[in-house]
Design brief:
Elements lengths: L6 E2 L6 E5 L15 H4 L6 H13 L21 E8 L4 H10 L6 H24 L4 E7 L5 E7 L3 H4 L5 E6 L2 E4 L12 E4 L9 H4 L2 H6 L8 E6 L13 E6 L42 H10 L16 E6 L6 E3 H13 L4 E4 L1 E2 L8 H11 L3 E5 L20 E6 L4 E11 L2 E13 L4 H4 L3 E6 L18 E5 L5 H10 L4 E5 L16 E3 L5 E4 L1 H11 L4 E13 L23 E4 L3 E4 L16 E4 L2 H18 L5 H10 L11 H4 L6 H5 L3 E11 L2 E7 L2 E5 L6 E11 L5 E11 L5 E4 L3 E4 L2 E10 L10 E9 L5 E8 L3 E5 L3 E3 L2 E8 L5 E9 L8 E6 L3 E2 L10 E7 L3 E10 L12 E8 L5 E7 L2 E4 L7 E2 L3 E11 L6 E11 L5 E7 L2 E7 L1 H10 L7 H4 E9 L2 E8 L6 E5 L8 E8 L4 E7 L11 E2 L4 E3 L65 E2 ...
Parallel strand pairs: 9-11, 9-13, 10-11, 13-15, 15-16, 16-25, 18-22, 19-20, 20-21, 21-23, 30-41, 38-66, 43-51, 60-74, 67-69, 68-70
Antiparallel strand pairs: 1-2, 2-47, 3-5, 3-6, 4-5, 7-12, 7-14, 8-24, 17-18, 17-24, 18-23, 19-24, 26-27, 28-29, 28-31, 31-35, 32-34, 32-36, 33-35, 36-41, 37-40, 39-64, 40-61, 42-44, 44-47, 45-46, 45-50, 46-48, 48-49, 50-51, 52-53, 53-56, 54-55, 54-57, 57-58, 59-60, 62-65, 63-64, 65-66, 69-72, ...
Length: 1583
């Protein structure tokens, strides 16, 4: 919003601006920095009340409760879209209340209520005019809501609150259609199918709809309104049942033509004016199709040859267009449509839309509640923001409505054998199809022999120029454009089928891409092929034409009934209510889409159908079923229908999906229409100031606090609908609990006679450890106990096993029991309780963007932004300035000089407060004063409305306000310039030292000098000050006319300069450093040391121009010498997460089961289920127990022999040290002097079986020649290369050895599982004065290149590892695969081996980040929370990501330095990585000496760290990057992160989120962190 200003609390000066995003940490709050010692007394409640009395007399009440918190920061002339609520109850609410009481309003009573509501609206509008409120009125609501929409000038929002009858003003939010983007899904559990079936809309048969159709229930007489983007009125699917519609989207300048109120057509391409783009920033098209698809799922009449048909094809269908261009619309239009639907007596309304926050108390939610009470069944999509908790939005949060989640249908994928012949080349292999044509038989489509044509490049439209593929099969490479576009271009050029082969950079390369797109009318059959096969066929086709044919078509089918990851989860707030209520298939749903026949008369609708995914697609399934249920039970209320849908739903896997993921389960249409009994959970709901009855199928215990023993009772009313009675059992399945919490049923068995009331009591003992996350979740089951049949089955932990010879694998066999229930006699009700009670009110993330300020108007450090979040409503609250230097000063002698904000109440939410240099003194409040120079903290203190706790406080600081410049005094003593700085920062540091908050003075005073000699002005050079402000500069020999200018800039931006005439001395050379073991460190000279001064030093060391010499690499990650798996780090490790407690399903019968091997020459199995691989081959293991059986397929491969390509592997010999090859000085000199050579190369003998060690010796004079050049020295031994950088040669020569020798050795690596190279050992020794010294570490990395075998499957998973002789483990070194060799760098020599791991995790098989996670885990950069699970949606702390960065970049680690006070030496897993990342400039602290290691890392922090890492490795990558991308929430990105975010986006390392937002304060998940790290490493060329 343009010109956004701040709402006034008590003047235009002191202000708050509400923000809705999470806020990034910057400074610690009081409890994090030890307030007990720093602020021993804190704020007193009596002082707060005294201050409140003063403010009360000044009329400083802010009136927040009536104005929605999102509107409290607005002022100015700009118009704001709002919804105004009025006090008189609307007719739907009154009608619903009467009906629930067993009464019914008469027509005259309804008219009287409506008249009263209308009259109030007229009166309010008149008063608004009389008060001078500028507004433009929109829709009015008088049925489901009493109020109206309007555009009001921001300055007039406060005036609205003074209009009699106005109860609430809330923003008119934008709502979107809830369609999810299609994602490949090819890893679900597979079930074999014997024949290829015709493709159909699988929901119909899967949900049992046909049984209802056979009974005559197809929706006849039921009125259904679809509130969506409209409908294609010309689509044949609605030829007989579309009865009418309305338009609730105003058409102004943003549309090319007007729209009639009764025209519900979809937004057409012809509606787009020239100034609006075809696609918005989120990729949504201007024209729409969503509503037509939703309407088709409900009511398509089946006017097609493919079996596509709606759930209720004979309903009376109405289309209400509430979403316009780009699928968006205003909440007011939706409420107006709900209002109209109730007036027009719709039986069912479908809202596949949503947005905004998770709240039960907005206008849309109230409208839904009232519609339900007025008799209209309201079905709403929860959203597509899963899988995290609480991700649903309005209006699905309505407590009385039916919220719907998204599950999967069974889905079929196909494969077939592909035969290619091109000249002498022949190929035949079974391949998967990534895409097929909807409704077509593959065998018929691909019958015969076809010409195969290789399409050049990547299959873009222009790549077909001069290529004839008509009636042929196109061979296309993956890359650059989407798979669906490749298919489309091939089809448009006449191809009858396509093969898309992977490319070297593609996911899963060199194997197939592994993509499954499903079927569609726009697809031709498209096969998935590997890089290797594709390249071979392309090469064969270069020599002539080729043919292709297909055979042996087969298929596999997923089982369905998985909750989609994208499906939004509950609970709704603030009541911890269970949402969704029920789930339905919403993944890959085939339905009608528009062809815009009204605008394009020749439109062809024969294939105007497509697959969409999202809760938008699940919701019309429930709406259609609700119509059938209502038809079958015409006397039912909406609450009867809601309860029937819930009671009879099929529970999905409760170990995978809790009550907030699946609600009551996946809908069972037939059961819902014909229940024998219904069980109503009796509850109430607060509905816009009225408490109403809430009958539902879920039991909500809400928030309960365990500060005492609790016993909370809810009631369930069981009704006999068929008059059959019977004996019923009530059982409880507690899927999650805390402490001794349990559910007690007062009637665990009962005889049903009409109705039965059941008391369900939650009990739990007092528990001080209960946190807000403590929960009791589960299901209450009510069943007859009749006709139940328990069957057992066997389950094996793995049914397809791949081994290499000599590997072992332990099977785990369990016997599981399944209860086959009687026909619709068992019902279930989910329940939920939050046992931590409502969390105590907190002030969180109390932070400021600048801690050093100078309010002098120079544009430098002139302002700061204070941000924080309060988690509960506050009463009296202040933000004050506390004087650290005078803690007993101020009007109340409590150190507070005045306030920045004071208020009588403040709603929960996130806030920001600009600090611009003015405040109000407690002694003299008017006029506002300038904050004087000083050392302060900014404190917030408040009384809470809840009293839990009574008072909350937070502070941030120390904060320096300073306008004065530093003072510089300096004189010459011989050739040294000595001086002293006088400044307040020194005084403040002395004060802060008493509290342990002192800082390094060089962080606050930045000193530099400029030397001018003979009128030649040099560069500005920084130098370090001593902690008392003194300094000494060694400047060398200078003349009397030379000058040095000393510049000091303080942290607040104040700058001082002084110029002095000078003279000086010189620097010494570094000595050779020898340790007690005879090892030497080759280090740089003094100019390469860190600029950090050491304690007790008198001389200032000048800032370095090069990085500090790298130290020896510490242990990062171990791999056991068998490499059977990559173990997690210790329990305190950087990526260690606690696994969710989960009980094992079934009885473990591994030791009791019997095992039979089909071919025991391939594997054997012990009596305890241990498999041992014997030789290569395939076989089956049959497992039997208790009359049940299970089969395990086993494939054994030969263990690869690892050897250098140019020689056989030497045996286990102990060779003598070889005689070194002497390097010829003349040859070296020639290469050094050759301008065409960039390096000096020395060839030495290759490694062989008889000579597994070789050496080369360089004499001192030859070393001197090399050192004087700038060229590196390369030793080549066969396929092994060692590149020694010139800097290392210089340092080595500087220590004047007599000679230096490099030795390369090789041994077998067969003991290391996954090894793809031999073990190579490298050493460098130096001889000086007859003593041989081992060079242990280098000042600059040496590059090594070693050969690897041709068995590599995925080059990205290949890494070099250092063999740590002391730990017998492998330590990650990294490296890049390049044509059968691995190139890597190291700062020390030892033994190295190249390994290819293939690590995966069970919980990422369907995850969008599966590939990058597997790559990083295989390289041992990251690990899982267990060996088999990764926890991709878990959160990542700052410490964990810092350690990951250090590991990935192989940063040099050192012993504990204590860089950060909150990263202790005892945190051994973290401190080496954190301190290494700090030294590299990748991470910084969040306050003085504080890192906040356990804070969850945010998106902006992770982007910043990643870009610092990129720049650390290759600064050129960050240059000339397109940083023009903008986000709608750019203003929310912290100043520290803005440049990094732009660069990361420009490089493609990170992307925005839907709605053109970056969401900088959102926490990053483990999966997101892995992807960002992967992308960064990819950009750095690590893969």
């Amino acid at each position: 919003m343009k010109g956004k200003k701040i709402i006034k609390f008590f003047s235009s000066l002191l202000a708050f601006v509400m923000v809705l995003s999470l806020l990034s940490p910057f400074q610690a709050s009081a409890n994090e920095q030890g307030t007990n010692s720093f602020k021993p007394n804190g704020q007193s409640e009596s002082n707060m009340k005294l201050k409140a009395a003063v403010l009360e007399q000044l009329n400083l009440s802010d009136g927040l409760p009536k104005l929605h918190k999102e509107l409290q920061d607005l002022s100015g002339d700009e118009e704001v879209a709002v919804i105004v609520h009025l006090s008189e109850d609307p007719v739907a609410l009154e009608k619903g209340i009467s009906q629930l009481k067993g009464k019914k309003l008469t027509s005259s009573q309804e008219k009287a209520i409506t008249d009263k509501v209308n009259q109030q609206q007229v009166t309010v509008n008149k008063e608004m005019v009389s008060k001078g409120i500028s507004f433009k009125k929109g829709y009015s609501f008088n049925t489901v809501l009493n109020g109206f929409a309007a555009k009001v000038k921001a300055d007039d929002l406060d005036k609205l609150l003074k209009v009699k009858g106005v109860t609430l003003v809330e923003p008119d939010v934008t709502v979107y259609a809830l369609q999810d983007s299609k994602t490949p899904n090819n890893t679900l559990e597979l079930e074999k199918i014997d024949k290829v079936e015709a493709s159909m809309n699988t929901s119909i048969s899967f949900l049992g709809i046909e049984k209802l159709w056979k009974e005559g229930y197809e929706g006849q007489g039921i009125k259904v309104a679809v509130l969506d983007t409209g409908i294609d009125t010309k689509h044949p699917e609605f030829a007989t049942n579309l009865k009418g519609g309305k338009n609730f989207v105003p058409h102004g300048n943003d549309y090319a033509r007007p729209r009639a109120d009764d025209d519900p057509s979809e937004t057409s391409p012809l509606d787009r004016p020239a100034h609006r783009p075809k696609f918005d920033a989120s990729g949504r098209s201007f024209y729409t199709d969503h509503g037509t698809h939703v309407a088709g799922t409900i009511a398509a009449i089946g006017a097609n040859e493919y079996g596509i048909k709606g759930i209720a094809p004979k309903v009376d269908l109405y289309a209400y267009r509430v979403l316009g261009a780009y699928g968006s619309g205003e909440n007011s239009g939706i409420i107006a449509a709900i209002d109209t639907a109730v007036k027009e007596k719709m039986d069912v309304i479908n809202l596949s839309l949503g947005g905004g926050s998770n709240t039960e108390t907005d206008a849309g939610s109230f409208a839904i509640n009232n519609a339900m009470m007025a008799g209209t069944i309201s079905v709403i999509a929860t959203g597509n923001s899963g899988p995290n908790r609480g991700t649903m939005g309005i209006p699905a949060t309505a407590r009385l409505g039916i919220g719907v989640g998204n599950t999967t249908n069974p889905e079929t994928s196909y494969n077939g054998k592909v035969h290619v012949k091109a000249g002498d080349y022949e190929y035949s292999k079974q391949l998967n199809l990534m895409g097929t044509t909807f409704g077509q038989d593959l065998a018929a489509q691909l019958n015969g022999e076809f010409e195969l044509v290789a399409v050049p490049k990547v299959g873009e439209a222009t790549d077909y120029n001069g290529i004839d593929v008509k009636g042929k099969v196109a061979l296309i490479s993956r890359g650059e454009i989407a798979f669906v576009d490749k298919i489309a271009f091939a089809k448009s050029n006449g191809a009858i089928a396509a093969i898309i082969h992977n490319f070297d950079g593609g996911t899963n390369a060199p194997n197939e891409s592994g993509i499954f797109l499903g079927d569609g009318f726009t697809f031709i059959p498209t096969f998935d092929m590997s890089v290797t096969d594709g390249a071979a066929i392309r090469e064969a086709l270069q020599n002539g034409s080729g043919t292709i044919s297909f055979s042996d078509f087969d298929s596999s089918r997923t089982l369905g009934d998985e909750v989609s990851d994208s499906s939004s989860r509950g609970p709704s707030t603030p009541n911890f209510d269970i949402k969704p209520d029920v789930t339905a298939p919403g993944t890959d749903i085939m339905s009608s889409v528009p062809a815009y026949g009204a605008d394009f008369p020749d439109a062809d609708y024969s294939q105007s159908y497509d697959r969409f995914t999202g809760t938008s697609m699940a919701t019309p399934h429930i709406a259609g079923i609700a119509a059938l249920v209502k038809q079958a039970n015409p006397d039912w209320t909406p609450f009867d229908v809601k309860v029937a849908l819930s009671n009879t739903a099929k529970l999905l896997n409760t170990k995978k999906y809790d009550v907030f993921s699946q609600g009551a389960g996946r809908v069972d249409a037939y059961a819902a229409a014909h229940p024998r009994v219904l069980a109503y959970a009796l509850d109430t709901a607060n509905n816009d100031r009225e408490v109403v009855e809430n009958l539902k199928g879920t039991v909500t215990f809400g928030h309960q606090k365990l500060d005492k023993d609790i016993s909370v009772t809810k009631q369930i009313l069981v009704k006999d609908l068929k008059g059959k009675g019977g004996e019923f059992n009530v059982t409880v399945d507690m899927t999650k609990s805390f402490g001794d919490a349990k559910i007690v049923i007062d009637k665990p068995t009962f005889t049903l006679d009409g109705e039965q009331l059941i008391n369900v009591t939650l009990t739990a003992s007092k528990n001080a450890n209960a946190k807000p996350s403590a929960e009791a979740l589960g299901y209450i089951h009510i069943s007859t106990g009749e006709n139940d049949n328990t069957v057992t089955s066997l389950s094996v932990n793995e049914t397809d096993i791949a081994l290499t010879t000599d590997d072992t694998k332990q099977l785990k066999v369990t016997e599981e029991e399944t209860v086959i229930e009687g026909d619709y006699l068992d019902i279930s009700l989910p329940f939920a309780a939050e046992l931590g009670g409502e969390a105590p009110v907190e002030i969180r993330n109390f932070q400021i963007t600048e801690t050093d300020l100078s309010f002098n108007g120079d544009g430098i450090k002139d302002s700061a932004l204070l941000t924080f979040t309060v988690t509960g409503d506050l009463d009296t609250n202040y933000i004050e300035i506390w004087d650290i230097m005078n803690p007993e000063g101020g009007a109340y002698e409590d150190g507070y000089i005045g306030y920045l904000h004071a208020g009588s109440s403040l709603a929960a939410g996130s806030y920001k407060l600009p600090i611009t240099g003015l405040y109000r003194s407690w002694e003299k409040q008017d006029p506002p004063q300038e904050i004087p120079d000083g050392l302060y903290t900014i404190d917030m203190s408040a009384l809470t409305k809840s009293g839990n706790p009574r008072m909350v406080e937070a502070w941030v600081g120390p904060i320096v306000v300073k306008k004065t410049k530093p003072e510089i005094a300096a004189t010459f003593e011989k050739e040294n310039l000595t001086g002293n700085i006088t400044d307040k920062y020194l005084d403040y540091n002395d004060e802060l030292a008493q509290y342990g908050l002192d800082y390094n003075i060089n962080e606050k005073l930045h000193a530099s000098y400029v030397l001018t000699t003979d009128d030649d002005t040099g560069e500005e050079r920084p130098f370090q000050l001593e902690q008392d402000g003194s300094f000494e500069l060694e400047l060398g020999a200078l003349t009397e006319n030379d000058t040095v200018k000393v510049v000091v800039v303080d942290a607040a931006g104040n700058k001082a300069e002084a110029t002095i005439q000078v003279q000086g001395t010189a620097n010494p050379n570094p000595p050779i450093n020898e340790d007690e073991n005879g090892e030497i460190d080759i280090e740089g000279d003094a100019s390469e040391e860190a600029a950090e001064p050491q304690a007790g030093e008198n001389k200032v060391k000048m800032a370095s121009t090069e990085a500090e010499a790298l130290s020896e690499l510490k242990l990062i990650s171990k791999i056991d010498n068998k490499m059977s798996n990559v173990p997690s780090v210790s329990k305190e490790g950087p990526v260690r997460y606690l696994a969710t407690d989960e009980e094992d399903a079934g009885k473990d019968v591994t030791n009791e089961a019997s095992y039979t091997v089909e071919d025991d020459s391939i594997v054997t199995v012990s009596d305890t289920g241990l498999i041992t691989a014997k030789k290569a081959g395939k076989t089956k293991i049959t497992i039997e127990y208790g009359g049940n059986g299970e089969t395990v397929n086993v494939t054994v491969s030969d263990r690869p022999v690892v050897s250098p390509p140019d020689s056989s592997i030497p045996g286990p010999v102990t060779p003598s040290t070889p005689t070194p090859v002497s390097i010829d000085k003349g040859n070296i000199t020639d290469q050094v002097n050759d301008p065409d050579k960039n390096e000096v190369k020395v060839e030495i003998p290759g490694l062989t079986n008889s000579q597994p060690k070789v050496s080369a010796q360089v004499q001192s004079d030859t070393l001197e020649v090399l050192a004087k050049s700038s060229k590196p020295l390369v030793f080549q031994s066969g396929n092994v290369e060692v590149t020694v950088p010139n800097k290392l040669l210089k340092n080595l020569a500087g220590n004047t050895p007599d000679s230096a020798t490099i030795t390369i050795g090789v041994t077998k690596s067969t003991d290391i599982n996954g090894a793809v190279s031999a073990i190579y050992e490298f050493t460098i020794t130096a001889v000086k004065n007859g003593q041989t010294l081992v060079v242990s570490r280098f000042s600059e990395p040496v590059q090594l290149s070693v050969p690897v075998t041709n068995t590599v499957k995925d080059p990205r998973k290949v890494s070099a590892y250092y063999i740590n002789e002391s730990t017998k483990g492998l330590e990650y070194v990294g490296g890049k695969y390049e044509k059968n060799k691995l190139v890597f760098k190291t700062n020390h020599f030892s033994k190295f081996v190249v390994v290819e791991n293939a690590k995966t995790f069970a919980d990422i098989q369907k995850h969008w980040a599966k590939d990058p996670i597997e790559v990083l885990a295989s390289r041992t950069i990251t690990s899982g929370n267990t060996d088999t699970t990764f926890n991709p949606e878990g959160k990542v702390t700052r410490a964990e990501f810092a350690v990951l960065m250090a590991r990935a970049l192989i940063l040099p680690t050192e012993s504990y330095k204590g860089t950060f006070k909150d990263v202790k030496e005892s945190k051994a897993w973290a401190y080496p990585g954190i301190e290494a990342a700090y030294r590299a400039g990748i991470v910084t602290g969040k306050a003085k000496d504080m890192f906040d290691p356990d804070a969850i890392i945010t998106r902006e922090e992770i982007a910043t760290m990643v870009m610092r890492a990129v720049n650390y490795q290759n600064a050129s990558l960050g240059k000339n990057v397109d940083t023009s991308t903008t986000f709608a929430d750019d203003h929310s990105i912290g100043s520290f992160a803005k440049d990094a975010v732009k660069q990361a986006v420009g490089l493609g390392i990170i992307i925005g989120k839907p709605g053109n937002k970056f969401d900088p304060k959102a926490s990053a998940t483990r999966a997101e962190a892995a992807v960002l790290l992967y992308q960064a490493l990819d950009k750095l060329g690590e893969f």
